[in-house]
From TrEMBL:
Pfam family, one: Pribosyltran
SUPFAM superfamilies according to UniProt: PRTase-like
Domain called Phosphoribosyltransferase: residue spans: 145-224
Transmembrane segments: none
Family that this chain belongs to: Belongs to the ComF/GntX family.
Protein name: ComF family protein
Residues making up the signal peptide according to the UniProt record: none
Length: 229
């Protein structure tokens, strides 16, 4: 069951800090009360482009038994994810993880998973950015769902960004680009693979294949947003 205690409002020192540096909605920039639990205003929260399908089969993504997307990758969600990834806003990942958790709660057919595994970055890219947003999302989601998080996957080579690739390139760009550091961590386990966005599903498929070849029994995937729907 979810650990709802983690959803309490900010503590004293956090509220004090917000008096000096007000918390803002990650979608529209509206200044929020210092007691706000998440960085989202009521208007944006109500109008987010929810995907609303729960976990569904994704036959276009090999090795994945089911896919969950919280939102459609458009408008305010696309802008927030873009800012999180490219404009140094890692804190946005915590809000997006909460919103993913909240959307999961709307759908009772959520699979039981033993581990959460975030999609990794190549070490060069992570050093450049300073953080892996999927790792932050996965860690926060794991705390809310009370599921252990293992950074079991390694990206073994630097690849052309998927966002800059054609559809055909995306499907071949990531072949053999991931491996499991220690197969005993995932062997026989049901895995929830976490990423920020699913477009063609090539990244999720490549990661899922590495997990399955390392012995994982079931692989489900969860993303903040899905493109092209």
């Amino acid at each position: 069951m979810p650990r709802t205690g983690l959803l309490d409002g900010p503590g004293f020192w956090e509220r004090l800090l917000r008096l000096l540096y007000p918390e803002k909605c990650v979608f529209c920039g509206t200044i929020l009360p210092e007691t706000a639990k998440i960085s989202t205003c009521k208007v944006c929260h109500a109008t987010l482009p929810r995907y609303g399908r729960g976990f569904e089969r994704a036959p276009h993504i090999p090795w994945v038994n089911g896919l969950f997307a919280a939102f459609v990758y458009e408008d305010m969600v696309e802008q927030a994810i873009h800012a999180m990834k490219f404009f140094g806003r890692p804190r946005t990942a915590h809000t997006l993880a909460f919103l993913m958790w909240e959307e999961m709660g709307r759908h009772p057919m959520t699979p039981d998973c033993d581990l959460i595994v975030p999609v990794p970055m190549h070490r060069r890219k992570q050093l450049s950015r300073g953080y892996n947003q999927s790792g932050i999302i996965g860690q926060a989601l794991g705390e809310m769902l009370d599921i252990p998080v293992e950074h079991a996957l390694i990206k073994t080579r630097h690849t052309k960004p998927q966002s800059l690739s054609t559809r055909e390139e995306r499907l071949t760009n990531l072949e053999d680009a991931f491996r499991v550091a220690d197969p005993t961590v995932v062997a026989g386990r049901s895995i929830l693979l976490v990423d920020d966005v699913a477009t063609t599903g090539a990244t999720l498929g490549a990661c899922a294949r590495a997990l399955r070849e390392a012995g994982a029994s079931w692989i489900f995937a969860a993303v903040i947003a899905i493109a092209g729907k």
